[in-house]
UniProtKB/TrEMBL annotation:
UniProt organism field: Neiella marina
Keywords, sorted A to Z: Cell membrane, Membrane, Transmembrane, Transmembrane helix
Domain NADH:quinone oxidoreductase/Mrp antiporter transmembrane: 131-423
Membrane topology: Multi-pass membrane protein
Membrane spanning stretches: 6-27, 34-51, 82-102, 114-132, 138-154, 166-190, 210-233, 245-269, 281-299, 306-325, 337-357, 378-402, 414-440, 452-473
Coiled coil location: none
Record-stated family: Belongs to the CPA3 antiporters (TC 2.A.63) subunit D family.
Record's protein name: Cation:proton antiporter
Length: 487
């Protein structure tokens, strides 16, 4: 199969899978779930088939349609997009396995609708990853927002729908009100929106306009959850845990920080943006988001809300690393997308497993739970240590590169932020680990539960192993992203 055919297949396989899931769901639950797993596996095979070509330096592309003169729907695979697509497609397999165990164990309704929109969301994610220009990126960014709304509102009760509307409202308002004007401004100023190594805006936008345009992109891409555009993320915690995993690890928030990083590298250009003083504000905004969200997380008593604010902080590691505008930091931004994905999906899988097995959602209910759910809490511990940045977990690798880039740029605001947030991460994760393993179980919390369903435990074990494995085996990711900064 040619590279252009593989790109198109990556977009169409999840859509075809969505149709097949609807048909299979009318016949038998097992068939529906088999179709989901086969679709996820087929997508991963197609995406990973592109990797050797990208590693060899090729940049396969395909143009679908010219919407108006100079603006087309087109796709091109480059190192950053390859990384994002490979990450999302691989984790879809694991998330699908977990979802089957969770949805059955929790006796959730409308499971066919759930798996259908999950597949559509993955198609949108592939479109974002492989977008060749700003118009294509914006188009699939919006499709991802719309396709995940039914997932966030899955439970259907009044509170859930209200929170889902916050999710949808914030993301659509920021994208239409800020992101779209930034896209239009770029096309007018540069005459193009194509992602080009070195950027397309040099001498086209200058002075304070650079900082303003950067602001429209950063705050318009609300999925990156840079404060104050972050309220949608805690609101979305009403969704089932597999959806939270999709939001935090597989697609949605990763689409946000991926888009910002891609725009910095391919639209502004790292060297050009570094030379413009009006762009320096981004490091400070990202640093504020990291520290503020970590402080809010420290005060949370609900486990999923704590993880939500932790995600807000961890996302801005990627934004801050990209904003440092040094090669090591750019590598660190990409590596942290992977490390955070493995660690955070593990944490959400564990939180969901705890809920399915015991219906516990609050931190004070976790006394001694490690003795009842040793597999789940071992995985949680590994994920938490990765968020803190403790070896041997993937989080240590990404923080190492971000810190190295900060020192390379003599950016001591970034250095201080990473140190402070690491302390804060430890302050809210280590007490949970202590409660789970070393505190005595309270009589009122004893409902004789054990582990969650086997499929859920299997999935969280796999992601925990990936979190450790990424510490040891990260050469492919590093080599891929070195191509990005060496061009």
């Amino acid at each position: 199969m040619s590279s252009s055919s593989l790109i198109i297949a990556a977009l169409l396989i999840p859509l075809a899978g969505a149709v097949a899931i609807v048909v299979a769901g009318r016949l038998h639950d097992n068939l529906r779930e088999a179709v989901t797993l086969v679709t996820a596996g087929a997508l991963a095979w197609v995406v990973w088939s592109l990797l050797p070509e990208i590693q060899a330096g090729s940049r396969p592309a395909v143009s679908i349609s010219e919407v108006v003169p100079g603006i087309d729907i087109a796709f091109r695979v480059e190192p950053l997009g390859m990384l994002f697509a490979a990450l999302a497609s691989t984790l879809w397999i694991v998330n699908s396995i977990y979802s089957i165990g969770y949805m059955r164990g929790n006796k959730e309704k409308n499971q066919t609708r759930f798996f259908t929109f999950f597949a559509i969301a993955l198609s949108a994610t592939m479109g974002i990853a492989f977008s060749a220009n700003l118009f294509t990126l914006f188009l699939f960014y919006e499709v991802l927002t719309l396709s995940t709304y039914p997932l966030v509102s899955h439970k259907g009760d009044i509170n859930t729908v209200r929170s889902a509307r916050v999710y949808l409202g914030v993301l659509l308002a920021t994208s239409i009100g800020l992101f779209l004007p930034a896209v239009i401004w770029t096309y007018i100023a540069a005459g193009s929106g194509d992602f080009t190594m070195g950027g397309i805006l040099a001498s086209k936008v200058e002075g304070p306009e650079v900082g303003l345009l950067l602001g429209l992109f950063v705050f318009g891409i609300g999925k990156a959850a840079v404060m104050p555009v972050h309220r949608w993320l805690p609101a979305a915690m009403v969704a089932p845990t597999p959806v939270s995993a999709l939001l935090h690890a597989v697609a949605v928030v990763k689409a946000g920080v991926f888009a910002i990083t891609k725009i910095i590298v391919y639209i502004f250009g790292v060297d050009y943006l570094f030379a413009e003083p009006s762009s320096s504000w981004l490091v400070y905004v990202a640093a504020f988001t990291i520290v503020a969200a970590s402080l809010v997380a420290l005060r949370q008593q609900n486990l999923k809300r704590l993880l939500a604010y932790s995600t807000i902080a961890q996302l801005s590691y990627v934004v801050m690393a990209a904003a440092i505008l040094k090669p090591l930091a750019e590598i660190g931004a990409a590596v942290h997308m992977v490390a955070h994905a493995f660690g955070k999906i593990t944490l959400f899988f564990a939180a969901g497993a705890i809920y399915v097995a015991s219906k516990k959602t609050e931190l004070h209910q976790l006394h001694g739970i490690g003795r009842r759910m040793p597999w789940t809490m071992t995985a949680f511990t590994i994920g938490a240590l990765s968020m803190i940045g403790v070896p041997p977990t993937g989080g240590f690798v990404s923080k190492w590169y971000i810190l190295a880039g900060a020192f390379q740029a003599d950016n001591y605001v970034a250095v201080a932020t990473i140190i402070a947030s690491t302390v804060l991460n430890a302050a809210y994760f280590l007490p949970i680990i202590y409660l789970a393993w070393f505190a005595d179980e309270r009589p009122e919390n004893d409902n004789q539960h054990g582990e969650a369903p086997l499929l859920a435990v299997f999935a969280l074990t796999v992601t925990a192993l990936l979190t450790i494995g990424f510490f040891l085996f990260n050469a492919t990711v590093l080599d891929l992203e070195r191509q990005l900064v060496s061009q």
